Amino acid sequence: MICKLFGSDKSKVRTNHTGSSCVLKWETILWQKVKKKYELLDYHLVPEYLQDNEFVLRHYRSDWPIWDSLLSIFSLHNETLNIWTHLIGFLIFLALTIDTMWDVPRLEQLFENLSRAQHMKQEAGDTVLNLTEPVTRWPFFVFMGGSMFCLLSSTFCHLLNCHSSSLTYWLLRLDYAGIGIMIATSFFPPIYYVFLCQPAWRHFYLTSISVIGIATVIISLIPVFQTAKYRAVRGLAFAGMGLSGIIPGAHALINFYQEPYCLQTLVYELGMAFFYLVGVAIYVTRIPERWWPGLFDIAGQSHQIFHVLVVAGAFTHYKGGLIFLEWRDKSGCL
Ligand SMILES: [Zn+2]
């Protein structure tokens, strides 16, 4: 009646007349082994590369196969909400991009504008009316593309970082590069549309932010940059990059302080800055889990709040971008 198990090879199971129950027992033990291997672990049991936040105590996935890591999007652990907050953000931006593509002024609308302008010209006598074409959309879509890249790379980083230290090494670089790209591309719509009629300034600011963006991405590829010790440096580097927008912002305000469209967009840009700066502060300080370690392992931890604020900031910037398009579609370079 004794079933002896040799390793994990099923063929080596010795059976007697109760062979079927031996196989059953073998399967039970194997299942328990598998279950134990892929169960969620506590902070002190996971390898060093997963020990990023000592205030999140439980529900870690550790060294899971890639397929199980992918499927874990549908299960509950301490990365579930980090994955979904940015995946939903990506889907929102994908839908907004498609919607904005459809919303480009159509040819009929142009003819309608033309007849209206001719009518107004007759009424205005010699007043010169300048019928403008819809302004180019590429800077707007550069921003949308940068945001989607950031949100999707973050989603994959949080989903697969439990697989191995070597994969995490590359995923974290992709994640930080994505943040740098998102911030740099955020500058494109305001700078392009505000300085539409001042090409020298437009080129200067767009080149500057591109250089700063590329430098930040390169710095983010340096291995030491991803360690938990450098969390504050990362936060400050990205915040500094965003705050460099104060210079073209102040320049724009001096030039266009009487332009209602410009003032409207300023409100949105300040809203975006507020969301991003509060997000970075929460990311760096790791509030609230710092105050109650273990209480926010599944929901409510600082990184999830940071993710939501990033999506909120990007959405606010998108709304401001729509106003820039409306302004330049109507005014051109008048
Ligand atoms: Zn994240």
Automatic annotation (TrEMBL):
The keyword Repressor belongs to this UniProt entry's keyword annotation: no
Question: Which compartment or compartments is the protein found in?
Answer: Membrane
Q: Does the keyword Ribosomal protein apply?
A: no
Tell me one Pfam family matched here: HlyIII
This protein's membrane topology, according to the annotation, is: Multi-pass membrane protein
Q: Which family does it belong to?
A: Belongs to the ADIPOR family.
**Can you say what this protein is called?**
Uncharacterized protein
* Species for this entry: Sphagnum troendelagicum
Upper taxonomic classification of the species? Eukaryota, Viridiplantae, Streptophyta, Embryophyta, Bryophyta
